[in-house]
Amino acid sequence: MVKHSFQMSDATGDTRVLARSAMGYDWNYYADDETAIFGSGSDATISWDGDSLNVTSAASEISGTLAVAGATSLGTTAPMTAGTGITTGTGTVYHSSVVKIGAIFETTIYIDLTGLSSNVVTDIIGKEATANCHIGQVTAAVNGTIFAGYVQCLEAPGTGEPDIDIWYADEATGTEDTAITALTNQVVVLTAAADWTIARDGTPTRTITGLPAADKYLYLVGGGGTTDAVYDAGKFIIKLYGA
Q1: Phi and psi dihedrals of 9, rounded to 5?
Q2: Largest Cα span, the chain
Q3: Which of 187, 190, 146, 131 is nearest to 164 (CA)?
Q4: 93 and 40, same structural domain?
Q5: Structural domain contains residue 156
Q6: 4-55 pLDDT, tens per residue?
Q7: What is the DSSP letter of 84?
Q8: Are residues 89 and 20 part of one domain?
Q9: Which whole number is the average pLDDT over 163-169?
Q10: How many domains does the chain have?
């Protein structure tokens, strides 16, 4: 196999016309020293940035087996995000990911409650007196139709209320220290029915019983206790599976 090298000056009008008639579409030509463009409207590009090969297109299809050596990073174009009543907490950490493998969507939400506030039973947890305390919106396009899920405690909640439930509602605007029942079409996703702790033989999990419906916003809500305080600990993983 012969390796051919091309310079910018090689991509003349004549070569583009020749390739168009041979292949049925605009030929890929060099936009600069390290970028190739496909299609008449820059429909796709392949570029080298000095460290990585970057492919940009509406979709990329690979026929046959894909073998990957080394670390792999996957992401969707529309991951879940939390409201400002969560993300502006001092010391609060929120991350989410959605990966589709075959026909199954796997959603992961990680949250560290540090800096958020709790209050009485059924009150929304979030930054004190702040609106938009949801931890993400579930949509069919991003998460699929949810058919299962669970919550895993990685670090027991500290200072704030340790009995924490999960609800969903129509609105994204729920405010800390406001009853979740004041929102529209609110439904319990998970009732902890006990303080969250880490068991000696591993991390306990609780299965989600009220599957989140499409287009609903998820909230952390005070469960059986009435502790009015700011959390100094409490780490959780929330898993949702959709199809």
Answers
A1: -65, -20
A2: 77
A3: 190
A4: no
A5: yes
A6: 444 545 555 554 444 444 444 444 444 455 677 776 666 788 888 888 888 8
A7: H
A8: no
A9: 98
A10: 2
